[in-house]
DNA sequence: CCCCAGTGGAACAGTGATGTTCCGAAAATG
DNA sequence: CATTTTCGGAACATCACTGTTCCACTGGGG
């Protein structure tokens, strides 16, 4: 059963469990294994077959999550074009990761998960991008780069929150975020 | 024991439990009753004497929380002076409520708590303030008022996060927030 | 078509949190 | 100082979740 070659069936259910766990846990941070199993349309036993302990599932989610962020970052091509435009691109990419990122935000249960502490390649790329923008003169140098990344994440969070509370469409919320972010990085004369 | 007149002793330990619960739960959202009791320097039994069930404690925290927000809002005197300055004042007041508000943000366990859904007087006052600023010409009318309040909360959250991650002082973080907020509400020419 | 990897469900023990009761000790109150 | 109130701790029953084992089934690949 734990053969080296992923049979296809195994890989499929593994993904199903991972996806279901992600969505279940972003809706309810206290979801039990049984809840996740139900969400995945799978027996609770099966989950334990793939992830012996809850922590195993959580760290699998963790890496899966980092991978998706990584992919989104690459797709934004941070090195191309003016820095402010690249920043908007990466925001748009990240905006699509709502379930993934809401989970990351609202689940401090993963505090013990080793893998957050060390800087991601995405983190570094983002900081480099902002640095580049400051030198280019397209991003306000009056605010620390680390602060601007915080603000970017916050604005994304606000956008998702805005679609929940208000009856705003996702598109409208994203537009608001980008508009606000543009004002934030604008250079004061 | 449940006499009508608050004896002083009862009121005192009640506050102690409430405060300890607040700080314990903001540090660790999954804190057990035993944890909270320990944090309050009080027996677990005593907590159940004041708050028979966990949900009772949570809703007590909820109202206590709303009260503190209410007080902070009043102290900001939203009706006085230019709207943009009033907005900065209320930010400064809210910034002091770090434990209270971080708890509110990071504890979706209070989602079931009835009392968030209906608009607070503070919410309304804040929206009125922004509306006033738009008419005055001190706050950008290009962004919906509801969105600006979301952004304000997010910036506060960013500030607290910034003091955690970076080695920034609270004062510096607040300054960053205010500076960024000023740019956000600035009217585009 | 047949077989077996993959699955679901029942059943079980272990664990930690919750809520309750009871009683002796401590402290506030008059 | 005496009395009433309040507190702490031990003990207990209950509950939900976890992780494990075992067995019966099923459906897709060889």
UniProtKB/TrEMBL annotation, chains A, B:
<feature type="DNA-binding region" description="H-T-H motif">
    <location>
        <begin position="32"/>
        <end position="51"/>
    </location>
</feature>
<keyword id="KW-0238">DNA-binding</keyword>
<keyword id="KW-0805">Transcription regulation</keyword>
<protein>
    <submittedName>
        <fullName>TetR/AcrR family transcriptional regulator</fullName>
    </submittedName>
</protein>
<dbReference type="InterPro" id="IPR009057">
    <property type="entry name" value="Homeodomain-like_sf"/>
</dbReference>
<dbReference type="InterPro" id="IPR036271">
    <property type="entry name" value="Tet_transcr_reg_TetR-rel_C_sf"/>
</dbReference>
<dbReference type="Pfam" id="PF00440">
    <property type="entry name" value="TetR_N"/>
</dbReference>
<keyword id="KW-0804">Transcription</keyword>
<dbReference type="InterPro" id="IPR050109">
    <property type="entry name" value="HTH-type_TetR-like_transc_reg"/>
</dbReference>
<dbReference type="InterPro" id="IPR001647">
    <property type="entry name" value="HTH_TetR"/>
</dbReference>
<feature type="domain" description="HTH tetR-type">
    <location>
        <begin position="11"/>
        <end position="69"/>
    </location>
</feature>
């Amino acid at each position: 059963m734990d053969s080296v070659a992923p049979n296809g069936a195994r890989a499929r259910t593994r993904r199903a469990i991972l996806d279901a766990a992600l969505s279940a846990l972003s809706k309810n941070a206290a979801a039990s294994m049984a809840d996740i199993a139900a969400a995945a349309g799978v027996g609770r036993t099966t989950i334990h077959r793939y992830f012996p302990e809850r922590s195993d599932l959580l760290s699998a989610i963790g890496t899966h999550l980092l991978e998706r962020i990584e992919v989104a970052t690459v797709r934004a091509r941070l090195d191309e074009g003016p820095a402010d435009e690249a920043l908007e691109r990466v925001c748009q990419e990240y905006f699509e990761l709502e379930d993934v990122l809401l989970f990351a935000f609202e689940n401090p249960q993963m505090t013990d998960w080793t893998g957050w502490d060390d800087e991601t390649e995405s983190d570094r790329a983002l900081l480099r991008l902002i640095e580049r923008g400051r030198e280019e003169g397209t991003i306000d140098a009056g605010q620390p780069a680390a602060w601007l990344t915080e603000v970017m994440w916050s604005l994304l969070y606000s956008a998702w929150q805005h679609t929940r509370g208000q009856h705003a469409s996702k598109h409208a919320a994203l537009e608001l975020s980008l508009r606000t972010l543009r004002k934030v990085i604008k250079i004061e004369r």
